[in-house]
Design brief:
Radius of gyration: 16 Å
Mean pLDDT: 83
Distance between the termini: 23 Å
Low-confidence stretches: none
Number of helices: 2
Number of strands: 6
Order of helices and strands: EEEEHEEH
Largest sheet: 2 strands, antiparallel
Strand content: 15-25%
Number of domains: 2
Strand order of the largest sheet: 1-2
Length: about 120
């Protein structure tokens, strides 16, 4: 598993290693020791995997306590390069379509503002 730092405070990319052969594939998506070594919480609460049809874009969701929140997927401040040129306008949920921009989102008190020059 590869754990990658990002310019966002307390946000890391977890990239599992996928092992495949003619039978299919297997991926370890959580390992308490690997998470602890990267300074991530060892207590694992939830793991979701989803399948989306071509042209569907799932939003940027996060948890604050028990409540579920999201940030607008195409906020220019995030500067995410989505590989969607070949599909046109993506299909998003009603919630993702009206999600607040990062500057207007409810964020944890420990949030450090994004330095877009670091991207």
């Amino acid at each position: 598993m590869q754990i990658i730092d990002t310019p966002l405070h307390d946000v890391k990319i977890i990239r599992p290693k996928i092992h495949g052969d003619e039978r299919g594939w297997f991926a370890e998506v959580f390992n308490a020791n690997a998470f602890a070594a990267a300074g991530l919480p060892r207590r694992f609460v939830q793991d979701n995997q989803s399948f989306s049809r071509r042209g569907v874009l799932r939003g940027l969701h996060y948890q604050l306590g028990q409540a579920s929140w999201c940030v607008r997927w195409n906020d220019p401040k995030l500067a995410i390069e989505w590989p969607i040129d070949c599909i046109g306008e993506p299909t998003v949920s009603a919630q993702d379509a009206v999600a607040p921009m990062l500057d207007d989102a409810e964020l944890p008190a420990s949030y450090a503002p994004l330095d877009s020059s670091a991207l």
